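User: Can you help me understand a structure? I only have the sequence.
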Amino acid sequence: MEESKRQILEKHGYALTGSESGVKLCHWVREKLISGRSCYKEDFYGIQCHRCLQMSPVVDLCNQGCLFCWRYQDYHKRSSVKFDEPEDIMKNSIEAQRELVSGFRGDDRCSDKMWKEARDPNQVAISLAGEPTMYPYLGELIHEYQRRNMTVFLVTNGTFPKALEEIDHLPDQLYVTIAAPNEEIYRKLCVPEKKDSWSAITETLELLPSLKTRTTLRHTLVQNWNIGWESEYAEMVKIAEPDFVEAKGYVFVGDSRRRMNLENMPSHDTVKEFAKKEGELLGLKILAEKRDSRVVLLGVGKMEMKLR
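Assistant: Let's start by predicting it. Here is the structure, written out as tokens:
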């Protein structure tokens, strides 16, 4: 990674833990420690969000330029990349998280018990920035965290089905972002680097039913861009047979403000109406929702909160 890029990321609050890897404290870690408010993943999936470590093994590598992405992008093609070792990433990321939460101990609003728990993360979200399936040792990295009895959520754009097919250690939950109902909208909204990315996503959807882990398809919904087309989205869900479907509204924050505007933020009611229509087509019901996160969860029957 170029030194200029490292400096920008550090100004944005990233703790860089190697040549390519990094950690950034999630907004909801702060909220949980200070006010007790939890993120929707805690409510939906049973994690403890103040003990969640948000990281990426490839902060500066991605094959898409999604207009709605709130992370700093500015990706440059490089002839060679020095990937960090899985064990080093694991150790350095945990140490970085401990440093990032250290200042909360002096805040009277944060209990000593919760602060100590935050310094001992038991959940990893491999979703910070970049596309994690571009990291060649992803299965080993997941295994390093799981060996420490940490649960692992992996978020991918689904454009590297081979990486998922060949992974030797699956995450406890696999997220695949499906942010477009067809190739035309996908090309305009997600700005893929390669022409065959849409067909690669289809391959990933076909692969998902065979993966022995909990799976979630996430629709990132952007007003005036990709809302509607419920039947097209539903057909994609039928192929993937995920455990859950998330309809999540885009939020006008971060770097996305250079490309989007406030009008692109759908209301929670709009997101819920989309989810209701898609659910009816799929025979799925609304299992949960969180208005302040503009997110609705679809599934069958009761939620199984525990990962292990």
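Now, to help you interpret it: The two ends are 36 Å apart (CA to CA). The chain has a mean pLDDT of 91. Let me know which part you'd like to focus on.
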